[in-house]
């Protein structure tokens, strides 16, 4: 209105419509393209990209408008030369120029929807934001306006990252000498969580959850620290106060989540105590309200400088029950790993305060729950929607709450809870609950149907073709998804690793990006509060690369699964995710509760048959064969690869379903059933180990196109020879 009121009557009649059109493009779903904001190497435009014919029309009748719309001196200097003026305002990608993009059916037919492939898999992209981490278990922010984020490693160190991506050399916290863990892959003990008090900006308090050994007794410990009075990027290590300790009867199922709710109370998520099947007492720890294990606890740590270290919130559900611990907020949980509060819709606040959790299953199912006060979530009577302890399950007094979604172990064996996306940069993701599975590396999403209350499942895969071909974006990740995170602005991240050991520096943090629709330029800009830095800054250097996936005439082999449970069942056979990591693995930190069992190795040398009567043409570089008990395997066996004139084996470091998919497709099989490890089909001791650290997306033509160590270079033995099991038919049970 300010600009239009300055126009005379004739100019207003001719140009008001153009003025409105140009101003409104900042709110267009395609604003990031119109203003060339996808490429950080180019300056953000002040005028949207215009099609040649439209620019000519505006220039002829209304070029005086541009002085009011832009202070760009180069544009103003070209004002009297139509050809140069319109060339300056053009876009390299003419599909996106205004106003022709409004009539482009290819661009508009799915407007408002996340891009999905032919199988309905939502295609997203990633930005690498941190690397070289040792089992990164948590990433949090201080909610103090600085937009720093803090990443915790399982060994007991927490690092400070600044908004520019750099890391401070001095750790925010180092309690590695006190933390109980080990280098063993799958050790669930360690530093498991950190959370900042909602009033951290004023009281400087931080809370941590870690494993500790006290007089040969394993415990989980919840402690409080204060910020250093001399350095805002370091905790005062001498300020620790132990808020709560709980004895752990076994080394697994340690829980490991801390959250503050809108009520400013501290929520603590404990595991059921470990072993298997919650064998403690008559009904297990989870159903015993007098035990703190297998619970969601809620305590009040506000104003605790004097008096008790914590108090019981007056509305806790069992505060008046003499047989229950007053800290208990909800019960019947097995081992909730990663929970989050929904921020609510940015405009309507719908959904705000809902508490989502992933609860790791026992033998058959993983589940996602919405946790509510006083509710029973069924374990050990129930696992997912299925009965586990049939006697308990038929007890009518159980009154348990069913999960919003559960999936079988053919899809994954260890759920990692995530977040409902409420960020600014990827508006199409608003309302999607995004989570994953540690064992399978599968990324998944749930969307609530408001009419029915059911949750619709969609798998998430990495973008193919040009979906992720923008500067700084990648389309692959390490398989072991340990945790999810939000930054201060609400953008979504996940943390994963290629080697699930507390001492292996292979952890990476990824930011999730939806390129199908980006927010208008400038809308999501944040201005972090200044941070006084006393430690050396270590600049971030990304290491992950975009993988260009070449289409192949045959579809990639698929993992075989049964349809997921909960919401609306999806009969599709989910695809092998495009990940760069390892296949089977022990559970991650925090009580995944399940280590895979490798089959005993079969005897046999695996040498190629010799003495054929006809001389065969030598195989091509990268050819593969399967060997089992000294013979060629038919669809199953140890993988042997031909490189530079010789056959050799593949080490199982990094061996995964996507890599197995490449082998099966080479051999003419449309499905991959398993990626086997630890010489399950025998050790090829008569051959050299030719490939190690193989990491594939699943789309490559041969293993040589995958990422791998130099040919012949390895740090393994034949005890770790990799294998596959392929099939011509998918298993549908």
Automatic annotation (TrEMBL):
It is found in: Secreted. Residues 542-635 are annotated as: Disordered. Residues 594-604 have a biased composition (Low complexity). It comes from the Eukaryota. Keywords: Disulfide bond, Glycoprotein, Secreted, Signal. This is HIPL1 protein. Belongs to the HHIP family. GO terms for cellular component: extracellular region; membrane. The keyword Chloroplast does not apply. Disulfide bonds join 696-706. It comes from Myiagra hebetior. Residues 624-727 form the SRCR domain.
């Amino acid at each position: 209105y300010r600009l239009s009121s300055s126009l005379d009557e004739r100019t207003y009649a001719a140009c008001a419509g153009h003025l409105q059109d140009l101003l409104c493009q900042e709110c267009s779903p395609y604003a990031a393209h119109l203003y060339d904001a996808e490429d950080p190497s180019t300056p953000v435009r002040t005028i949207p990209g215009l099609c040649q014919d439209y620019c000519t029309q505006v220039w002829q009748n209304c070029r005086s408008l541009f002085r009011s719309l832009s202070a760009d001196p180069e544009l103003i200097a070209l004002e009297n030369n139509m050809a140069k003026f319109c060339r300056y305002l053009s876009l390299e990608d003419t599909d996106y120029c205004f106003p022709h993009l409004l009539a482009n059916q290819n661009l508009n037919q799915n407007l408002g929807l996340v891009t999905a492939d032919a199988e309905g898999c939502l295609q997203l992209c990633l930005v690498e934001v941190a690397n070289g981490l040792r089992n990164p278990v948590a990433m949090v922010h201080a909610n103090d306006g600085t937009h720093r984020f803090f990443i915790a490693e399982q060994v007991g160190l927490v690092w400070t990252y600044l908004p520019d991506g750099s890391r401070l050399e001095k750790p925010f916290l180092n309690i590695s000498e006190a933390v109980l863990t080990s280098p063993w892959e799958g050790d669930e003990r360690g530093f498991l969580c950190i959370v900042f008090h909602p009033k951290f900006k004023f009281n400087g308090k931080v809370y941590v959850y870690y494993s500790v050994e006290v007089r040969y007794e394993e415990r989980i410990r919840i402690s409080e620290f204060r910020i250093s009075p001399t350095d805002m990027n370091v905790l005062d290590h001498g300020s620790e106060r132990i808020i709560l300790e709980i004895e752990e009867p076994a080394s697994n199922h340690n829980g490991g989540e801390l959250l503050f709710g809108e009520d400013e109370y501290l929520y603590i998520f404990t595991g059921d105590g470990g072993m298997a099947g919650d064998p403690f007492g008559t009904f297990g720890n989870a159903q015993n309200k007098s035990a703190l294990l297998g619970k969601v606890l809620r305590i009040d740590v506000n104003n605790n400088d004097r008096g008790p270290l914590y108090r019981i919130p007056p509305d806790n559900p069992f505060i008046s029950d003499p047989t229950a611990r007053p800290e208990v907020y909800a019960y019947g949980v097995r081992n909730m790993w990663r929970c989050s509060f929904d921020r609510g819709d940015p405009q309507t606040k719908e959904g705000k305060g809902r508490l989502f959790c992933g609860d790791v299953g026992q033998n058959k199912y993983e589940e996602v729950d919405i946790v509510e006060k006083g509710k029973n979530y069924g374990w050990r009577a129930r696992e997912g929607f299925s009965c586990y302890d049939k006697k308990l399950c038929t007890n009518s007094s159980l009154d348990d709450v069913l999960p919003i979604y559960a999936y079988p172990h053919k899809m994954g064996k260890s759920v990692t809870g995530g977040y409902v996306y409420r960020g600014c940069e990827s508006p199409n993701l608003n309302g999607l609950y995004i989570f994953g599975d540690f064992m399978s590396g599968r990324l998944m999403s749930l969307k609530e149907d408001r009419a029915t209350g059911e949750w619709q499942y969609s798998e998430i895969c990495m973008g193919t073709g040009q979906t992720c071909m923008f500067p700084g974006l990648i389309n692959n990740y390490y398989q072991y998804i340990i945790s999810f995170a939000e930054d201060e602005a609400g953008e979504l991240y996940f943390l994963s690793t290629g080697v699930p050991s507390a001492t292996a520096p292979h952890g990476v943090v990824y930011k999730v990006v939806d390129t199908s629709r980006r927010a208008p330029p400038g809308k999501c800009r944040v201005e972090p509060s200044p941070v006084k830095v006393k430690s050396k800054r270590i600049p971030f250097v990304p290491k992950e690369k975009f993988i260009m996936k070449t289409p192949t005439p045959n579809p990639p082999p698929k993992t075989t699964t049964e349809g997921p449970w909960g919401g609306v069942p999806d009969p599709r056979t989910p695809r092998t995710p495009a990940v760069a990591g390892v296949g089977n693995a022990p559970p991650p930190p925090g009580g995944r509760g399940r280590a895979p069992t490798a089959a005993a190795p079969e005897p046999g040398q695996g040498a190629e048959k010799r003495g054929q009567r006809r001389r065969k043409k030598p195989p091509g570089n990268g050819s593969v064969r399967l060997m089992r008990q000294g013979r060629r395997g038919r669809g199953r066996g140890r993988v042997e690869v031909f490189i530079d004139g010789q056959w050799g084996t593949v080490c199982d470091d990094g061996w995964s379903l996507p890599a197995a998919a490449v082998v099966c497709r080479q051999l003419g099989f449309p499905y991959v059933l398993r990626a086997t490890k630890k010489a399950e089909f025998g050790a090829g001791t008569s051959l050299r180990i030719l490939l190690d650290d193989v990491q594939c997306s699943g789309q490559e033509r041969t293993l040589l196109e995958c990422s791998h160590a130099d040919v012949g270079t390895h740090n393994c033995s034949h005890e770790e020879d990799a294998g596959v099991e392929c099939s011509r038919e998918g298993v549908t049970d």
